[in-house]
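Weekly structure sync, notes
Attendees: PL (lead), two postdocs, one rotation student
Agenda item 3: pending single-chain targets
PL asked that the sequence for the first pending target be pasted directly into the notes so everyone works from the same version. It is reproduced below exactly as submitted, 274 residues in total.
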Amino acid sequence: MQYIEMSLPVQAGEPAEILTAQLSDWSFDSFREEEGCLKAYMPVRAYVEEKAEIERFLQEIGQPFSVETMPDTNWNAVWESHFEPIIVDGRCLIRAPFHESQPGFEYEIEIMPKMSFGTGHHATTCLMVSQLLDMPVSGNGLDMGSGTGVLAILAVKRGASHVDAIDIDSWAYENCRENIAANGVSAQITPYLGDASLLEGKHYDFILANINRNILLRDMEAYVQSLNPQGVLLVSGILEQDIPSIAARATSLGLERVEDRRRDGWVSMRFVKP
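Predicted structure, written out during the meeting:
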């Protein structure tokens, strides 16, 4: 599959994080920050469809950019060369199959990331993993915007009886299937290709949604309708500046705010349905 590389000059730190969150509303598969520049990657086919919207947005905010069509690349090899094991809270090791297992962790998850989001390296995934490690997990769950499936896998290892893993990206769907098989939890996780429309008639004891602010605001009502009483909604993919809008939306739908966690300008928020 051929990709475009969009280069966006930015200051280091928060400006790059904010721009990454804003661009996540479109079909960018991955982001990479270099000194003074954010690199964003998207399949050429998707860029052709979304080009006008993306470029209009960047022009409106005064963000310079350039776009280059990349040669055909072995993307798996690229991911492997940049993927390092990560340890969350000293309790959970997330590694690729080409890394050796390490003793001494409560949980060890094997992830071949390919083009899917969710390796634990990004602050939002790390925040979600951290919250999952500290909260009770049981019953049936949903991992919405599942990416690699890492959160669904951890939820099962933490005690969930079954988890549905839904992602709109076909790459993520196939990658999730591979990762749940590699971790021996295929019987307890069902991956789906689709969006929140798949939730109609389904009910869950907990819902994990590491997506972005706009989708969370749009789909939160569907999440709440699918959440059982006393069920937990755990969300991330949002910046600290998004807290008021996410909290207001959750409160308007009857959820109670339980805990926020923050890292590098990003936040995860946990709610419960009374």
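Discussion points:
- The chain has two domains: 3-73, 126-272.
- The radius of gyration is 18 Å.
Action: rotation student to compare against the earlier draft before next sync.
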